[in-house]
Specification:
The chain is an alpha/beta fold. It has helices at 14-32, 40-47, 51-59, 73-84, 99-105, 109-112, 143-149, 164-173, 201-217; strands at 37-38, 71-72, 90-95, 115-122, 131-132, 135-139, 154-157, 178-181, 195-198. It has 2 domains: 14-84, Orthogonal Bundle (Arc Repressor Mutant, subunit A), CATH 1.10.10; 89-202, Rossmann fold. The protein contains 9 helices and 9 strands. The protein has a 7-stranded mixed sheet, sandwiched between helices. The longest helix has 19 residues, at 14-32. The chain is globular and about 60 Å long.
Length: 218
Amino acid sequence: MEEKIKNTNYRISSAVIKRLPRYFRYLRELLEAGTMRISSGELSKMMNVTASQIRQDLNCFGGFGQQGYGYNVKYLYTKISEILGVDKEYRAVIVGAGHLGMALVGSPMFAKRGVTLAALFDNSPDLVGKDYGALHIYDAAELENYIKNNNIDIAVLTLPRAYAKETAQRLANLGIKGIWNFTNVELQFEDLGTVVQNVHIGDSLMQLTYRIGSAEEK
């Protein structure tokens, strides 16, 4: 009997949400390796998370396991995918066709996570009108018209930070569902119904250098 995802009446902690993509990745690797069933103990060794924490995390959404039998890997992967929205087939555009924007276009991560890239936007005359693979680079002035007519859910911002707030405001006003923001400017538009994920790559680099320094001091 299929287990339904439990509707929780409380807010799932950010720590649990951050771990969900890790479950997704490890479960996909297990599927590719032909593993059909795994215990929380075995999964904890792979992920370096305690078995108790894994059970607590999954219990937030219904559990999905059976005591003494562990987890059905394919079933759990499917349910985690549903929770993360991988099955929703979201459509996205990238605003900013510079080096970072182009690097993201070349990555398979969108397709693997159920997101279809539809187009790129820029204001550079050297880029507008060109094609990058199957994607066309449109003038940023056409952003409103394109989003209104192409069912776009997500905007990826890789443009210079000076244009970040203005562009994000335009997108939020258009009712875009989510913004993946790489501009190093903190954005927030939840009052308009737009979810923003601010990404600071430099922060991750500094966390690495801090850990290197801490290790050297030991």
